[in-house]
Amino acid sequence: MEYHKLGDKPCSSHLFFAILLVFVFIASFADAAIHFHQFVIEAKPVKRLCRTHSTITVNGQFPGPTLEVRDGDTLVITAINRARYNATLHWHGLRQLRNPWADGPEYVTQCPIQPGRSYTYRFTIQNQEGTLWWHAHSRWLRATVYGALIIYPKMGRPYPFLMPKKEIPILLGEWWDRNPMDVLRQALFTGAAPNVSDAFTINGQPGDLYRCSSKETAVFPVEAGETILLRIINSALNQELFYGVANHKLTVVAVDASYTKPFTTNVIMIAPGQTTDVLITADQQPARYYMAAHAYNSANAPFDNTTTTAILEYKSAPCGAKKGQPLKPIFPQLPGFNDTATATAFTAQLRSPYKAEVPMKIDESLLFTVGLGLINCTNPNSPRCQGPNGTRFAASINNVSFVFPRRNSLMQAYYQGQPGIFTTDFPPVPPIQFDYTGNVSRGLWQPVKATKLFKLRYRSKVQIVFQGTSIVTVENHPMHLHGYEFYVIGSGFGNFNPGTDPAKFNLIDPPRRNTIGTPPGGWVAIRFEADNPGIWLLHCHIDTHLPWGLAMAFLVENGVGELQTVQPPPLDLPQC
């Protein structure tokens, strides 16, 4: 908005200031826009790795559309389900203040959108900016139903770092050479682990190292000397990833749509659900450089041991030896797949750029064990008991393996006062204390299946220590809390010691996130204020673990008055 110098006028200063206030008020609303979108969820032919599959897409795109908005904008997105599966959409990392109805996890805040039906998600972005993303939150649909959600600052507000010449979303994904929903269905029938993916992808393309893929490898042209902002999103279904660009330094400036103190690194580790913004300057010899990603695998389990690539191409790069042929790209050095030291060192560098508003007086101090388990079978030789030693895989938090309801969603049941859908007796600490990361007795490997929630008073100050276990295997579990951001105040290996470890907490400038990994064989501590009423899912973002039960939900009670109360559900909210 332009401001012009007003000449001297024979009017009162009171009138002048009144008019000025009106202009400022109008301008504040004029900056906010309403974005209308239609997302058609349907199967389309997609060819990867030499084969064409009928792939679930949004608007025929894989990955799906990129949403670009500003802080303060409102989105109105009508999801039309033309696929043969139930579907929902989740706007990963958005607070959705007082509006759980737009959050999206099936059977938690809504019943799924059935084939042939639609639902309109309406929400406003409030005091958030940076890189987030959206994805399906119904079974394994998010293997291909996902896209970037980029929130720019309000008009006139600059980035807290050098303005880049261009910005590039980098979506890291996984690809199965068959229908991902069939992969999940087979695993849930047999009780065994699902087959691992056949490729990783960058912006939907596997890259040069896979069959039938080189022609479609993503290429990003750059001018020598320019600085680019890479908005990196791990949209892979099940795999933490190492990512780097050959011969180029990455300056980390934000994670999960929260700015960080900038630091420089050769490689990042990014877990499913997380985002990382990095600045990269094209300051090397003009050439072609691979950006690449491969697995960080912290579990004693099979994994996809392939590498996806894209190309950072200097526009002034010379041609190769063969006339007209481009130079062969230079490959980056990535850590080994089991390099926990590098992963830990990376996350340890993350800091908020300012003194953080960390809750100091804690009302609810929770200890949550997170890990896998096994369900014993009465007939171990059954086709349905193909897990280790004739069992079925499971997962749990505090020995409760979460069961998603089917008759109604949790939020609808709560709002309608419908009994029998859930209980609010989720344990605040493990029911039995044991050496969580040691040699655990097999008698503690089988969790209890239930739909239990933990109730929080409005504005209560919460601390959660996520304690990994060695049951079946240690593993980095990326824990995602819907409806909230939180401060990551500490982490370590082994068992959390409540007597000595809190003294090492960072309560000054911890990073703010919405998804945080639990170190393999270790713990991580977070804090937040329960200022968003509703029912909010907490779960591991490795999607193999979600149907096994590595989840729970918080029921945050209403406060006082309309602004502290869940808003009424929309009229078109799907019914079960």
TrEMBL record:
It is found in: Secreted, Extracellular space, Apoplast. PROSITE patterns: MULTICOPPER_OXIDASE1, MULTICOPPER_OXIDASE2. Keywords: Apoplast, Copper, Glycoprotein, Lignin degradation, Metal-binding, Oxidoreductase, Repeat, Secreted. Residues 42-154, 167-316, 425-558 form the Plastocyanin-like domain. GO terms for cellular component: apoplast. Its cofactor is Cu cation. It holds the Pfam family Cu-oxidase. One of its GO terms (molecular function) is copper ion binding. The keyword Cytoplasm does not apply. It comes from the Eukaryota. Its EC number is 1.10.3.2. It catalyses: 4 hydroquinone + O2 = 4 benzosemiquinone + 2 H2O. The keyword Protein transport does not apply. It is an enzyme of class 1 (oxidoreductase). Lignin degradation and detoxification of lignin-derived products. Belongs to the multicopper oxidase family. This is Laccase.
